[in-house]
Structures are given as C-alpha cells and as structure tokens.
Write a structure and sequence with these properties.
It is a single chain. The chain is about 30% helix and about 15% strand. The protein is an alpha+beta fold and about 270 residues long. The longest helix is centred in the N-terminal third of the chain and has 15 residues. The two termini are about 15 Å apart.
C-alpha cells in the first residue's frame, strides 16, 4: 500500500474529484524569472558562462544540452522533496532531486531567451517502488510531477526531445527504457530520450509534432493517472495543485532525503 496521510489536503481533494481533460496547448510559456526559476541569480549566470565557454558558437539547443551535462556533473542526484526550492539554492547546495535539477535547466533556458512551460502530470506513486523497496508504506499514493517543455525554433519540445542528441549523451546509460532503479534518474534518462509520457512519439502540441526520439519501448504513460494541464511556470503548477507531500512531512523528510544519494539502497 501507499501513504495518503502524507498528502496535502489540496492534493487529496484533487485526487478524489473526477478529472476533465485540461487544455494542453493553450499555454504560451515564459522567459520571466520566478521564485523557483530565479535565472537572474549569480549561480545561474555562472553556470551559463561555463556553458557558453564550452560550446563553440552553438545554437540555443546546444547550450541547453551542455547545461544538462554540467548540471549532471555538478548537482548530485538526491531524494529531496521540496519542489519549490529556488534554482540558486539547488546550485549552491550541489545536490537536488530530478525535479530540482530539471528546474535548473529551465532557468538556464529562460536566461538565454528560450520560453519554457510546465506540463503537470499526476503519477502513480508505485512508479517509485523500485527506489524504496522497504519503505513502500510511506511512499505517497500519487505524485505531482512538473515536466518542462522548451520552445525552440517555434516548436515546443519536451525534455527528451530537446536533449536526446547522440553526440551529447551524459554516458549514464546506453539504451533501453527507464526503470527507475540504480543511479539513473528521470533527469539523466531524459538526456538519452528514454522518457516519454505519451503512448506514441509525436504527440501534437500547439500544432507541432514532437520529434521522435529515444527507444520505442520508453513510454511511461501507464504510470500517468491524470494530466493536470500546462502552466507558464512550475511555480503556477504547484500553486494550483500543491506539492506531493504536506508541509510537515516535507519539513521532516527533506533534511534527510536531500542528502540521500539517488541509487543508494533505500530499504
């Protein structure tokens, strides 16, 4: 079983009502700095300088792929649970969850003028069972995920479509579907095109088709309970739907989980 006691009241109410299909294509995204995506901070600017120095006259997609690799090197993957943590704090700490590290990538994108938006997904908590084999009773039954999308050359690309370039892989895996085990997290798996939240590649967004990337067996759509819509920022998504854990649970768990390396035995 999974835990509902750790879920905020807003999320419980959301999970108990019937869902209507949200408008997925009406969100324009933004390049604005937000509380989470504080791309005017010194930490983000420093990361961006390193990206530019390592990318010889590349386009913005090259810069973002380089940023993804640098984040993977510099921000250690952990099981942190505060999804609204500012990007600057994640970079200062040098550790973050896959959600927090994806937020860093979003902030870099906005800093170079690439609009981003968040696709809200409600996932079955059992998706994380392989990470916590001995702690399943306290795994939330449903998890809110902010999956970033980037507008490059007038086309909306999700993280996998943007990052999956064979010559810029981070080297954490050489193929196959994402299993949510070991050291690889969603953040790394996106870098090789191994994360897809739809049944078929090429789901239409804003009249454009997503490029087909990654393996044919990498759809994780079976874990999606509901679409929560698209928002101009992850700040708006979490304001509308709440975080996965209630405030007391986040306060108690984050100091421990934010130092617990992803891939370590969680039993």
């Amino acid at each position: 079983m999974t835990s509902r006691a750790l879920t905020p009241w807003l999320s419980r109410a959301r999970c108990e009502r019937s869902f209507t299909a949200p408008d997925l294509d009406g969100c324009l995204g933004s390049t604005a700095a937000t509380r989470i995506l504080d791309h005017t901070s010194g930490e983000v600017r420093s990361l961006l300088r390193d990206c530019h120095q390592s990318t010889a006259q590349g386009d913005v997609a090259d810069v973002l792929r380089m940023a993804h690799g640098l984040i993977a090197e510099r921000v250690r993957p952990v099981y942190a649970v505060n999804d609204t943590q500012p990007v600057s704090r994640t970079l200062r700490r040098g550790r973050g969850s896959c959600s927090q590290r994806l937020a860093v990538l979003e902030a870099v994108a906005r800093a170079v003028g690439v609009p981003t938006r968040s696709r809200g997904l409600l996932l079955d908590g059992r998706f994380w069972y392989p990470r916590f084999p001995g702690l399943r009773a306290v795994v939330p039954d449903q998890v809110v995920l902010a999956w970033p999308e980037f507008r490059v050359d007038d086309t909306w690309l999700d993280s996998s479509a943007l990052l999956a370039a064979p010559d810029l892989l981070t080297g954490v895996s050489d193929g196959g579907h994402f299993t949510n085990t070991g050291k690889e997290t969603l953040f790394e798996a996106a870098g090789r095109g191994a994360v897809r939240w739809d049944d078929a590649p090429g789901s239409a967004t804003d009249g454009h088709d997503q490029p087909q990337v990654g393996c044919d067996t990498c759809s994780l759509s079976g874990w999606v309970i509901a679409e929560l819509g698209r928002y101009d920022s992850r700040d708006e998504l979490f304001t509308a739907h709440g975080q996965t854990l209630c405030w007391p649970a986040r306060t108690a768990a984050d100091p421990v989980l934010s130092r617990w390396s992803a891939g370590a035995a969680a039993s």
